[in-house]
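User: Can you recover a sequence for this backbone? Please restate the input before giving your answer.

Assistant: Of course. Working from this structure:
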């Protein structure tokens, strides 16, 4: 006897991927996530591949995972996928201290972020 599985959070034409604890601040990660919101999946992959930002590699991996989930788990057409949602959240922050002058300390926070990417299949043009 087990619990019934929870209902699916996303629609039938959507697939998602999630990454925890990416070592960058949510504000910086959101700059890269905003590059791909609303774009076609192939176009978003291309823009992340050639982006100079360090975190673009992690965002690209999550996007590739969402595309693979759409193809393998939900049987969606890869050519019609676009990024419907790319949301960034705060995870946790490591707190460190650096010695400063006259016996004092300065606090340093090293923030981590979570990233959720949802891809959706476009409806066929009539």
């Amino acid at each position: 006897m087990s619990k019934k599985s929870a209902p699916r959070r996303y629609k039938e034409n959507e697939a998602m991927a999630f990454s925890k604890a990416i070592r960058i601040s949510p504000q910086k990660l959101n700059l890269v996530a905003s590059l791909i919101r609303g774009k076609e999946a192939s176009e978003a992959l291309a823009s992340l591949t050639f982006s100079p930002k360090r975190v673009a590699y992690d965002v690209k991996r999550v996007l590739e995972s969402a595309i693979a989930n759409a193809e393998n788990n939900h049987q969606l057409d890869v050519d019609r996928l676009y990024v419907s949602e790319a949301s960034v959240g705060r995870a946790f922050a490591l707190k460190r201290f650096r010695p400063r002058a006259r016996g004092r300390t300065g606090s340093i926070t090293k923030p981590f972020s979570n990233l959720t990417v949802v891809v959706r299949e476009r409806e066929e043009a009539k």
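That completes the design. Strands lie at 14-22, 81-99, 105-121.
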